[in-house]
TrEMBL record:
Cited InterPro entries: Integrase_cat-core, Retrovirus_Pol_polyprotein, RNaseH-like_sf, RNaseH_sf
BP-aspect Gene Ontology terms: DNA integration
A Pfam family of this chain: rve
UniProt name for this protein: Integrase catalytic domain-containing protein
Organism the protein comes from: Phytophthora cactorum
PROSITE patterns: INTEGRASE
Domain Integrase catalytic: 8-167
Gene3D superfamilies documented for this protein: Ribonuclease H-like superfamily/Ribonuclease H (3.30.420.10)
Example GO molecular function: nucleic acid binding
C-alpha cells in the first residue's frame, strides 16, 4: 500500500478528503445527505447538505463550496463511488489539475480522518435536532463553526487558526452580554444572549466528542 510522506503536505488543501453521510431523515427542504470535505493539513472541514449524492451535487459543492472559497486542492482522496469517478468528475480533475487518489491505494489514516469527523458531526447534530429529526440541516452550519474553532489535540490548535493564522472573533469575545447596555429592543438582547449560550455549548460538545473519538482511535 502506498504511504503518504508527511513532507508531501505542502500546506492547506494540499490533500483534501471527501466522503458522504446518509441517507438521513429527509428535511422539509428535501435534504437527506451531507457531503464532507476535510483538509488533511489543517483539519478544516466543509460540509454541505444536499438532496442527492449524484455527480452534479458533488461537482457543485466542490466548485462553489471549496474551490471558490479556498482555491484548487492539489490532491483529492475519495472512495470509488460513481459520483467521484464519473466522466464529469474526471473532467473536473483534469481541467483543474487535481491529482485523484482512492482510499484503497493510499494511506488508511487519511480516510479514517473524515470517518472520525463524520461520527463527531452526527453526535453533535443528534444533540440539537428536534424529536422529528427533520431540522438537522438547519443546525449544520452552527455545528461546523463549533468544530472549526474547537481545540484539536493532533493539531495543537484549532482548524480555524491552522488555516487563517489567527483566532476568530467569537460571540463570547463581544460585549453583547453587558447588562448595563441599553438595548433598543428586548428581543435583540434575548436573541444575542441565546446565540451566545448556544455557540458556547456547541464548542463544549464538540470538544467532548473529539476526546471520545481520540480515545476510540487510540484503543
Amino acid at each position: 500500500m502506498q504511504r503518504m510522506p508527511v513532507q508531501d503536505l505542502s500546506g492547506p488543501f494540499s490533500l483534501l478528503v471527501v466522503d458522504a453521510i446518509g441517507p438521513l431523515v429527509v428535511t422539509p427542504r428535501g435534504i437527506k445527505y451531507i457531503l464532507v470535505f476535510v483538509d488533511y493539513f489543517t483539519r478544516w472541514v466543509e460540509a454541505f447538505a444536499v438532496a442527492s449524492l449524484d455527480t452534479n451535487s458533488f461537482v457543485d459543492a466542490m466548485i462553489e463550496g471549496v474551490i471558490c472559497r479556498h482555491g484548487v486542492p492539489e490532491r483529492l482522496l475519495s472512495d470509488r463511488n460513481s459520483n467521484f469517478t464519473s466522466n464529469l468528475a474526471r473532467s473536473l480533475y483534469e481541467t483543474l489539475g487535481i491529482m485523484k487518489l482512492f482510499d484503497s491505494a493510499y494511506h488508511p489514516q487519511t480516510q479514517g480522518l473524515v470517518e472520525r469527523f463524520n461520527g463527531t458531526l452526527m453526535g453533535m447534530l443528534r444533540m440539537y435536532v428536534s424529536e422529528t429529526q427533520t431540522d438537522w440541516d438547519v443546525y449544520l452550519p452552527r455545528v461546523l463553526f463549533a468544530y472549526r474553532t474547537a481545540y484539536h489535540e493532533g493539531l495543537g490548535d484549532t482548524p480555524f487558526f491552522s488555516l487563517y493564522g489567527r483566532d476568530p472573533v467569537l460571540p463570547i469575545d463581544l460585549a453583547f452580554l453587558n447588562t448595563g447596555k441599553d438595548w433598543k429592543s428586548n428581543e435583540v438582547a434575548v436573541y444575542r444572549r441565546n446565540l451566545y449560550h448556544s455557540l458556547r455549548n456547541s464548542r463544549r460538545l464538540v470538544e467532548r466528542q473529539l476526546i471520545k473519538a481520540q480515545d476510540r482511535h487510540e484503543k
